[in-house]
Amino acid sequence: MAGLSIENVTKRFGETEVLKGVSLDIADGEFVSLVGPSGCGKSTLLRIIAGLEDQSSGDIRIGGQSVAGQRAADRNLSMVFQSYALYPHLSVGENIAVPLRMRRLNSLQRLPLVGRLLPGTRAQSRDIGQQVAQAAEMLEIAHLLDRKPGQLSGGQRQRVALGRALVREPAAFLLDEPLSNLDAKLRVQTRAEIAELHRRLAATFVYVTHDQVEAMTMSDRIAVMMGGRILQCAPPDVVYDDPDRIEVAEFIGSPK
Ligand code: ADP
Ligand code: MG
């Protein structure tokens, strides 16, 4: 199928098996939240999908194609971290432009030497500027483009991180607890913005959160993970009203 397929993925760190055979099919454009107690393997799974970590066994398919051995930069995915992971010495605009510059560098390296000497760099720079401006506008940070991350609030920094994810126009966004460093009010506001982004982009979202309300309100489906396995993946009302197992009910807080 198209979309994102996780096929029986396992992961060991030394003796410890952190992922014990995770399988999940996510359709194009679907918003799936991944919830579960701390340490159950959510971030590890996301990092494996992104190509930042290798699985021990199993496969990841994007649009039907295995991405085994494909570098993170080539996977057509964007990941957003809880810690923002911005470059402190670069301006907001330069931070957002990083993936575009890397992409251009990659494609230049694939050209024969003579191709690298051809003009066109200036036109491409203008394109990058336009793409950055567009992303910044969408996230309402256009007035902050010249600032450094250190001069921004947490909410603004997370929007820059979202802008940097957005500018690649990826097929899928992987978000690892992107709102957990924000205060309650900003969290509600940024949550609404992420939902709006999903609506406008029609891209696939895999969203790790420990906030049940977030998962319940934003998702097409919720995957409940425990001890390196997905116990249930279903629409929010099904997970809540008809949990497969007692562990799911207890975690979600369904009435017993
Ligand atoms: P979650 O995001 O659900 O809190 P993680 O995926 O971060 O969980 O971690 C799952 C388990 O794997 C934890 O027990 C963690 O200590 C372990 N782990 C994660 N990364 C590493 C690593 N690089 N080396 C060893 N153990 C790790
Ligand atoms: Mg985590």
What descriptive keywords fit this protein?
256 residues, alpha/beta, 6-stranded mixed β-sheet, binds adenosine-5'-diphosphate, binds magnesium ion, ATP-binding, membrane, ABC-type transporter activity, cell membrane, Carbohydrate ABC transporter ATP-binding protein, CUT1 family
Order of helices and strands: EEEHEEEHHHHEHEHEEHH
- The coarse silhouette is globular
Measured between the Cα atoms of the first and last residue, the distance is: 37 Å
Oligomer: single chain
Query: Structural class per helix/strand content?
Result: alpha/beta
- Number of contiguous helices: 9
Can you give the mean pLDDT?
Answer: 90
Main sheet strand line-up:
6-7-8-3-9-10
Largest sheet: 6 strands, mixed
Q: Regions with pLDDT < 50 over 5+ consecutive residues?
A: none
| Residues in helix, % | 25-40%
Strand content: 15-25%
Strand runs, count: 10
Cofactors, ions and other ligands in the entry = adenosine-5'-diphosphate, magnesium ion
Q: Report Rg.
A: 19 Å
Organism: Roseovarius pacificus
Keywords: ATP-binding, Cell membrane, Membrane, Nucleotide-binding, Translocase, Transport
Protein name: Carbohydrate ABC transporter ATP-binding protein, CUT1 family
Family: Belongs to the ABC transporter superfamily.
Description:
The protein has 256 residues and is an alpha/beta fold. 39% of the residues lie in helices and 23% in strands. The chain has nine helices and ten strands. The chain has a six-stranded mixed sheet, sandwiched between helices. Strands 2-1-4-5 form a four-stranded antiparallel sheet, covered by helices on one side. α2 (92-110) packs across α4 (121-138) and α4 (121-138) packs across α5. The mean pLDDT is 90. Magnesium ion is lined by residues 42-43, 176.
